[in-house]
Amino acid sequence: MNTTKKLLGARIRELRKSRNLSQEQLADLIGVEPRHVSRLEVGSSYPTIDRLEKIAAVLNVPLKDFFDFMHLTSPDVRAKNIKEMVKGMKEEHQRIIYKIVQAFQDY
Fold first, then answer.
1. How far apart are CA 54 and CA 36, in angstroms?
2. Could you give the CA distance from residue 33 to residue 12 in angstroms, rounded to a whole number?
3. Are 8 and 67 spatial neighbours (Cβ–Cβ below 8 Å)?
4. Are 57 and 81 contained in the same domain?
5. What is the residue range of 56's domain?
6. Over its length of 107 residues, how does the chain's per-residue pLDDT go in tens digits?
7. Rounded to 5°, angle at Cα 34 from 13 and 26
């Protein structure tokens, strides 16, 4: 089971890589040692809110984006959340979602 610390770290890594930055580059831009960025990304340490704000500024993302990590959870948790989301949708939207999922299964 992934902890919030590990999910947050994975999300920081995902956002950093999407900006084509190395751990060393990010560390330099936020004023820490590269090993500190590594510890954040593997979930062995939490960033302070000040550090998280610096990372957000460097990566040009709002703070809330660091906590958008449902896609990084286990398949069972993701499936349960998808089921709950779809259950609350209008029937016509459920049909569209069904067609999308079916298209991915056929792919």
1. 14
2. 16
3. yes
4. no
5. 4-70
6. 578 899 999 999 999 999 999 999 999 999 999 999 999 999 999 999 999 999 999 999 999 999 988 888 888 988 998 999 999 899 999 999 999 989 988 77
7. 55
Question: Do residues 64 and 96 share a domain?
Answer: no
Do both 80 and 63 map to the same domain?
Answer: no
For the stretch 51-76, pLDDT in tens is: 999 999 999 999 999 998 888 888 89
Residues 81 and 64 in one domain: no
Predicted TM-score of the model (pTM): 0.72
Amino acid in the structure at residue 40: L
Q: How far is CA 56 from CA 16, 21, 72, 93, in A?
A: 10, 13, 19, 34
Letter for the amino acid at 73?
T
